[in-house]
Write a structure and sequence with these properties.
alpha+beta, globular, 6 helices
Amino acid sequence: MISEKRTFLTEVSQTSAELGALRAQINPHFLFNALNTLYAIAMKENSEKTADGIQKLGDMMRFMLQENHQNRIPLAKEIEYLHNLIEIQQLRLDDNQQIDLKINLQNPDREVFIAPMLLNPLVENAFKHGISFRNASWIYITLTHDPEHIFFKVHNSYHPKSELDPEKDSHGIGLDNVRKRLDLLYPDKHQFSIQVSEHDYFVSLILTIV
């Protein structure tokens, strides 16, 4: 009975994800053409940094349209998406800011598969709540693996939003979605923990992939 319920919930979740992907494909050609136009303008104006950001955004959109509806994708593709996400986040940072950013994403030496878009909310959360333009900030992201597990850790400085900020508690939605997807897609095959202090935020995810 429990397994049947879990199967049903998984199917419902996948169907919802597919519907979301279809909505996102309403007119992808228009979006890609617009990005290509912006890319050409940026290159013409010698704005290489902007052009690079536009190109990476296009790669991310292509990933979401083509890969996000699949049950599993190669870990290498997920890592490529994370690199683009991190580099786009870096574009908004000033080189003069006191930000210590350390990234170590270990590419697999064999074929490893993972549910798509499972890791990026943890990275987005780190940049959203771990960066301060007034105080020293840091973000450390590591992804390693062994023959049976994927280990993903995000550790960042924590700068709580003010009480007046409308997005003060918005990070909880993304993390709740991660928890729900883990329960549906990796039942009894994951360990997900969050540790929060006054000054730092640590998320650890261990996936069993066999």
